[in-house]
Description:
This protein starts with 32 loop residues before the first helix and ends in a 10-residue tail after the last helix. It contains 18 helices and 12 strands. With 474 residues, it is of the alpha+beta class.
Amino acid sequence: xxxxxxxxxxxxxxxxxxxxxxxxxxxxxxxxxxxxxxxxxxxxxxxxxxxxxxxxxxxxxxxxxxxxxxxxxxxxxxxxxxxxxxxxxxxxxxxxxxxxxxxxxxxxxxxxxxxxxxxxxxxxxxxxxxxxxxxxxxxxxxxxxxxxxxxxxxxxxxxxxxxxxxxxxxxxxxxxxxxxxxxxxxxxxxxxxxxxxxxxxxxxxxxxxxxxxxxxxxxxxxxxxxxxxxxxxxxxxxxxxxxxxxxxxxxxxxxxxxxxxxxxxxxxxxxxxxxxxxxxxxxxxxxxxxxxxxxxxxxxxxxxxxxxxxxxxxxxxxxxxxxxxxxxxxxxxxxxxxxxxxxxxxxxxxxxxxxxxxxxxxxxxxxxxxxxxxxxxxxxxxxxxxxxxxxxxxxxxxxxxxxxxxxxxxxxxxxxxxxxxxxxxxxxxxxxxxxxxxxxxxxxxxxxxxxxxxxxxxxxxxxxxxxxxxxxxx
Length: 474
């Protein structure tokens, strides 16, 4: 039976027949890699690669301290002095605690116009080891609190700057920090080229496991990294249990360490936890929902974490399946609007816990099976397992050569994350094969490390003048 032609109605002129057409294969195909690389190269016209070297304090039109103070407005006020105390420990901890300042500065710099899902806080300590669901030890980006679609250059620049600042903190030669920044950018560029030439599924399945990460380091420097990997294997849920819990009256409980770990004693706690867990459960897939249903709630405590996260609401939740014989520690961390939103636009996700989880799953090669999200009142949270074979490099024990190798590893992993979340062919076309971009990033990193030092000293001055309160050594 064939479709009848459309009839004219009410004596009006005959209507034009609408003919349905089937989509062709071409409708489902995006331009080939060569065409996308060409499009990436075209972006150099508006954003020359050498222009990434440019930074001047004159570009800044805001007060860093005002930004930091504003960001404290939604935090637990009694913990804000701890945040400042940790930031004042060194220029590097200042950098870790002030991604909002760097993001506002990046918004004044040139970018290619190419967008990916970015970490938003890609300093070198936000890369590390963790266990995949198959219990393979992987090396990857591991912090996504600020994740949002944005310029890939922002992640590269923050990572490169962190190597220069860290090198200065550990008294390396000036050129060692600059070389590490350039090495990081070169590794990003060269690996992006490899991902641009790979089939999409191969990019998606790619991962950097511990053995691959170890091969990045020169043979004479592998021992220290092997030690980090061995330690990560020990940092599992049982080790976390020994560190954070004790048995009292035959009951497993979290050990309080005020003000860093404090048990929640609110009267409405049981109902609040019931609501929190109920929504979290719904956010999980059917398989993981079946798994989490096998555990029962045991204890719950507030925990101070990190540097930039201090003051946000973060909790440990202790679960157990068989009366202390099968425990599980979850971290329940507040997810506020990304610091990038005023600069890049609002997230597509209304729930910021879901924003973090979605960004993490997009960028990481494998993610925690317990990732999920929930809400308590007006506060958004995401869940993950606490200490599941997690580990990070000990920069203090690294030689300059080891430090440079670590920069290579981080640049590689960041390229892999961006290749999954964006178009590696376009980015690679923009970057090209020459060292122009690498050298520009190294110059920028040194100049911005100077800016970071100046901002750190301004925060020190604010403390001396009593403009801020800081609690040190916590």
